[in-house]
Amino acid sequence: MKLLRLLTVGACAALWLLGVPAAQAQGVLLRANVAADTLRPATGPNRAFFSHFYLGYAAVAGKFDGPGATLRYGRSGEVFAGMRQKYRLSQTAAIGLDLRYARLVYHLVQNDQKILPTPDQHQSESFALPQAQAEVYGRLNLGRRGNVVGRYLDLTGWGGWIISSAHHYVDKPGPNGAGRVEVTERKLNYINRWSYGVGARLGSGRYALVARYRLTDSFKDLGDAPRYPEFPRLVIGGELGLF
Amino acid sequence: MPPRQHAPCATIVSSWLLQLTILLPHHLRIHCLFVRAFFLLLGLGLSGITHTVHAATPSTARYWVVLRDKAGVRFNPATYFAPQALARRQRQQLPLTDSTDFPVRPDYLRQVRAVVDSVTFVSRWFNAVSCRATPAQAAALCRLPGVRSVESRPDGLPMLPATQPGAPERGTPEVSAADHQLAFSQTASLGAADFRRAKLDGRGLRIAIFDVGFSGADQHAAFQHLRAGKRILATYDFLKKKPYVYAGGSHGTEVLSCIAGLLPDGTALGLAPEAEFLLARTEQMHRERFAEEEAWLAAAEWADQQGVDIINSSLGYTSRRYFPEQMNGRNSLVARAAAMAVRKGILVVNAAGNDGLDPEWRTIGTPADGDSVLAVGGIDPDNFLHIGFSSYGPTADRRLKPNVTAYGTVLAAAPGGYVRTQGTSFASPLLAGFAACAWQQNRNLTAMQLFAQLQAAASLYPYYDYAHGYGVPRASWFTGSAQKKPAAATFDFVAQSDSMLAIIIRPGIGQVAARPLPLYSDSVAVMPPSKEKLAAVPAVGREELAPPVSDSAEKRPPAGATPTLPDPPSYLYWHVSDRRGVLRTYEVLEVKQRAVLQIPLRSLQAGDTVQVHYRGFTSTYSAQ
């Protein structure tokens, strides 16, 4: 108890030294520091700075740019999750930076025209290109609003690094009497690891429609090796902000 | 002011990308042309989608058009205003009419109509027209000779399905003893018995209620006396532009009951059961649009025309449209509309807000931020202290808000019976009923005189803080002269050793109930409210979205017990304010001993004032 009392006296002394009015010997039922209550934060959906996580899915759209591969639509797409920073310039304009992980998968139709990466046909075949991406964007906000995200259009430019490329296929039945054979080839030397592109987002609050277009080629120019048809460059999907 | 035009997304994207194309090397231009085409299509498609969703007519937006003058307009107040509106002006020695009452110039209105897609509302008070127009039409509006400014007013988020008539039943027909006790004390705390003895019940006063909807109010037994006496004079839905208001939500029903509702046994839920009412629907339950503020203004002009004395608005607008630092009573249309209503002699009573637990907002919304709007905060019926969710003051320009407080938890009439609910939405009508009785006693008071008297009648006056305002108004202040005498001193300021200011309660003042003595009583502890009391409450106007409040079992009175009002606890309130009267800090203390408070003098700045209130007595110490 002595210790408790000493602590209490010490706390009161500290308060006194700090210049804070000290109420002694009473139960404080309500205490307010007006300066703290009315402090206006610099962070918030429509404040100087805003940061939040998001996730989404975008389906691959468009076609290969030549014969030799056909995309399985619906299954081909990009799952992504990331963190967004927004810096407010004015009520209608903002800029920002996204950092995200995106796992892009292309599923291929198996047919006689197929040459990517070989003419061999399988039960199923896909390329997985998980990436780390950074994206800068300019935001145009529509309408007057308070501290909310509101409706907006983002124009973006992004760059990415393919963390690990993989070519995956399944044969069923497999060779040599096997019932099923799954093969995954990694570190594909014909895949470009760096990519960049442009994009757009049209959003309202936490929901957004997203489109991204890749400007770089997917495959390296390997001299005398046959040139593969280019993967579709466009993904279109939706995004959910986590805030 | 030129209109803020929103060019279609496709056009913006397209033009940006065109410039980008020119800057890039040739091998990338092919990509950019593709991208440009893609974004053009995306922009066209998505802007089409969004416009279809949020606009009545594709490609139009809402604009607020302020006209230049009212020159040459003729106006006869006797034909426009109800006799009660003229009488109100005469009583308050206001001019029967001023230019803000005049209609807008018909030629200007014709010019606007000829240009825009549709006109949705014409405001006499602000000499303005709300309309829907395309950006091109808005640009044409700016060129009209009669137009002073054009301001874009965004629409809200996509419309959710409108609430159907016959809202789900929230109330239950049974009224428990605890409910009965709450119903009794929510008016008794304001001094209902004093008003009753003085035969003050709101008779002859006209009260307009602006709300979300009044589902079930046309059938509920709690309002049978209003229907029988034909005292619901008029109704109008300013969003749907039709007279039917008994749909859209039951929030308005609950609010109305806190002014004039009756329990089956005749217990009044509010203080003005004999007043006359005008019910206006100005608010939608599931969205926030600027159109609601225009509806509020339209309803206020309508209420003025109909001779209303008091507007109760249990509504508030916060983060969807504004920032806390804009809450100064001058930014929002609805705050300016409320100020204009007061200028016409109407007392505007508004809920302070339910954002006290919201760290992003915490302070009052609008129109409670108006300096002439009586902002009503909520107190906890269990301890008569600020109830957690009730929004704090001050305003952005550091004026006192809330002005006064009343119960933040009430028993209210709702479809299906009665419901225990909470929110400052219900403190506001309790005060509106109180104000009606006070005004009934002295009809010659102006709206702002009544405003001042309502503050002066409050339990803490002249002490104030940003949680309780001046406290809970007391009917006895109006009905009994004894209450207006200065209270006897209950404590003294004592300077201790030139470094400490002590507040010592005088001997014989206050009793402490017999209880086991603690070993030490000199510890300082902030007593946190229970988790239940810290539960967030939806925004004002939307309290019905929360489940009804349950009564605490340990405090449940036995069935058939006569309701009583417990004596309000005697806390010690103290604050430190600067030389402008803006508070730096404030506290409420539970008094356990006579040496109640010590304040280090070094913590006070020159010009600071320490004000202390205990048992009706307020005293001030000024720092040099």
UniProtKB/TrEMBL annotation, chain A:
<feature type="signal peptide">
    <location>
        <begin position="1"/>
        <end position="25"/>
    </location>
</feature>
<protein>
    <recommendedName>
        <fullName>Outer membrane protein beta-barrel domain-containing protein</fullName>
    </recommendedName>
</protein>
<keyword id="KW-0732">Signal</keyword>
From TrEMBL, chain B:
<dbReference type="InterPro" id="IPR036852">
    <property type="entry name" value="Peptidase_S8/S53_dom_sf"/>
</dbReference>
<keyword id="KW-0645">Protease</keyword>
<keyword id="KW-0720">Serine protease</keyword>
<feature type="region of interest" description="Disordered">
    <location>
        <begin position="153"/>
        <end position="173"/>
    </location>
</feature>
<dbReference type="InterPro" id="IPR015500">
    <property type="entry name" value="Peptidase_S8_subtilisin-rel"/>
</dbReference>
<protein>
    <submittedName>
        <fullName>Peptidase S8 and S53 subtilisin kexin sedolisin</fullName>
    </submittedName>
</protein>
<keyword id="KW-0378">Hydrolase</keyword>
<feature type="active site" description="Charge relay system">
    <location>
        <position position="425"/>
    </location>
</feature>
<dbReference type="InterPro" id="IPR050131">
    <property type="entry name" value="Peptidase_S8_subtilisin-like"/>
</dbReference>
<dbReference type="GO" id="GO:0006508">
    <property type="term" value="P:proteolysis"/>
</dbReference>
<dbReference type="InterPro" id="IPR000209">
    <property type="entry name" value="Peptidase_S8/S53_dom"/>
</dbReference>
<dbReference type="GO" id="GO:0004252">
    <property type="term" value="F:serine-type endopeptidase activity"/>
</dbReference>
<comment type="similarity">
    <text>Belongs to the peptidase S8 family.</text>
</comment>
<feature type="domain" description="Peptidase S8/S53">
    <location>
        <begin position="203"/>
        <end position="471"/>
    </location>
</feature>
<feature type="active site" description="Charge relay system">
    <location>
        <position position="211"/>
    </location>
</feature>
<feature type="active site" description="Charge relay system">
    <location>
        <position position="251"/>
    </location>
</feature>
<dbReference type="Pfam" id="PF00082">
    <property type="entry name" value="Peptidase_S8"/>
</dbReference>
